[in-house]
Write a structure and sequence with these properties.
About 85% of the residues lie in helices and about 0% in strands. The chain is mainly α. The longest helix is centred in the middle third of the chain and has 23 residues. It has 2 domains: about 70 residues; about 40 residues. α2 crosses α4 and α3 packs antiparallel against α4.
């Protein structure tokens, strides 16, 4: 299959990039990817799909290499987008709570300063 050959060549050409990207993933996710590739390899062997099997072998080696690279270089996991969003939302909630819990005279001064700053823009 020509598509598999192109994908294999892409994996080879961008090997270092793919390793770096995968090394930032959590190890649990890399383990899941490895398990999935093993299952796909078994299916490819059963159906005698050698083109897919070659691609899966490249992926298998890259995932293992990424896990080794991650471990050897103590690379921390990249922050998950959802976790980052939740952290920012919690931070905003804390700021709002601090504002709401501040004595009334402190809030009035802060509002006046904000209004003064906004007016100075014009």
């Amino acid at each position: 299959m020509q598509n598999s050959a192109v994908r294999i060549q892409d994996c080879i050409d961008n090997h270092d990039k793919y390793i770096a990207v995968m090394a930032a993933l959590p190890d649990k996710e890399l383990a899941k990817k490895l398990d999935l590739v093993h299952i796909q390899m078994e299916l490819a062997e059963q159906t005698k799909n050698t083109d897919s099997l070659e691609l899966l072998e490249v992926w298998h080696l890259q995932i293992i290499e990424a896990r080794i690279y991650k471990a050897e270089n103590n690379i921390s996991d990249a922050p998950n987008e959802i976790e980052t969003f939740i952290a920012k939302a919690e931070e905003r909630t804390e700021i709002i709570n601090e504002y709401n819990n501040a004595p009334k005279h402190h809030r009035t001064k802060a509002e006046e300063q904000n209004n003064d700053n906004q007016l100075s823009l014009f």
